[in-house]
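Entry — protein

Goal — fold tokens:
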Amino acid sequence: MDDERSLLRLETEHHKSSRVSQESDFELRIGSHQVRIPYQYHMEDALVRLGLYQMRNLHQCPIDKGLITALVERWRPETNTFHLPVGECTVTLEDVSCLWGLSVKGLPISGESDADWSAMVLDCLGVQPEQVYKHANDCPWTYKWIDKGEPNARIQCSRFHLRLKWLRHNFSRRLTPNDDQETINRFTRAYCMDLLGSVMFPDASANGVPAMYLQFLENLAPQHDYNWGGAVLAHLYRELTRACRAKEKSINGPLLLLQMWSWTRFAIGRPKPNHDILPFGGPDLWRRNAFGVKWVKPHIWEGNPHRGTSQYRGQFSHLTPDVVNWRPYEAYYQNLPARGHRDIPMWCCRVYCTHFWIVEFHHPDRVMRQYGLFQTVPPPDPLPWDHLKELRTWTHMSGVHSDGTLTDWRNVHKEYINANAIPVVEQRPYDPSRHYMYIAWFFHNGMPTVHSRENDAARLSQPVPAPEGDVAELAYVPHDQQHARVMFRHMRLTARGIKMVQTPGQKAYGKQLLKVCRDTLGDVGLVELYRAMVDKEGLPFDPDEIDISGDIPDQRPIEPEVHIPQASWANVVSGNYHNLTQILIDGINLGNVPSSSAAVTPLRNVPHRKHNI
């Protein structure tokens, strides 16, 4: 696309969504996300100082491969957001801070990645990496066999990854009162390495953790201020970007964070906790639990026994704004840990997130509804697409130059590390009556649907026409069956809500129903249709202004909703937009649908406001 605001720069055939028709039940391979070294109370003070204390109980949860795969299909690497029928959504710094309790500001998780870590392994863990091992399993480093099968087979150690199996074997015993402080520190570092390699920064090795993280664990005495949250978010963005490529078969990274984010905001695949949730809050600000504790330990899944990719894909395709939890943490803010309170100003900032060789951009202005704020058409990205693609070619293998010198990533990426965080200045609250402007733009430029039929795949790169003119804008609905169903259902529910607020004993129910309908229709660009319907009956646009004082709730059901054959609605939509508009303005009884040949009265006195995008 030539438009600088167009979102789909990656060719359709190179994106995972293009293979849906060929691999409808495909699931990405994922690594283990279980920490095996036990947490012990002796480690508590050191974890608090490191900023990792809240992570101690956030890793007892299996990963749902079908859910992760369905989300990857909707990830767009151009924007670092998921493209959904309700607009763009993404994991933000707020999510990282609340779900995992990690700091999102401070010293970068960066430096040398390929140094000789042998001396540091000896100093931090008390083992001698250079000694001769009788058996390969005794070696702390990940390795590969050379001449395997020969009597004198050799192994080649990586000197980059410590083997998690070795780490867990040597540091899983219970500490005793006889253990000195140095032993406790070594067990604490081993626990942190297992946490970093299994949950926070898992990589393709699957069985190892990079030894480079020891440089942040060397001195456990002082209070540290590391930007663990920004590094985790950068790592997640990069893994989603890699996995959304058409031919990729696996995904790594902090997938537990992604799954907790999805369960927090969407009901799709969400389990019911089968345990008492650990308490939030507490007098000690540094030791408060993170929001994510509600998703750990045993769960019960109801009504979703198979939880396959195709089932999740269909549920995301049917997603409507009224079932999205846009502001899940509002009641939790008062219970934030100390670092979370401090980092609140960073949550809505445009900022680069870095992790050694990784640089990714945090785009809060693309998902302002997640902050409860007014969503405008986002500004252009700070980095050109070609430059962003070049940044994403860096890997840890880039840490050693051809002449043997090592790369310090703090110097390579200093312009991004030292860049100032730019707050997104927006004080207007979310306005459902004007959200249709963003939705119309998004449907024109984004990827609101993932097609499962091969002949539909080409539509991914074709924009949905935006409305032109007053009448077309009033009756505009995106041209796909799912959004047509959303529109028709909520038009019927609006008519039902209007009848309820005029029926004694049903007014409170009708008021709540109208709130849902107004928000949902606003999200699909049809708020003016809602306005026309309530204006026709003399009701205020804002359901909160409907007076229900003195009304006694009645348990008697009102008349059932009239069933409208889908074919009749299809004829109206495909035949004449004026007929559909006239139905909604001239009659609340939607059961009496005129034929496409019925006379159409010209529109008069229909309130309509023009807005510039």
Observations:
- DSSP finds 20 helices and 13 strands in the chain.
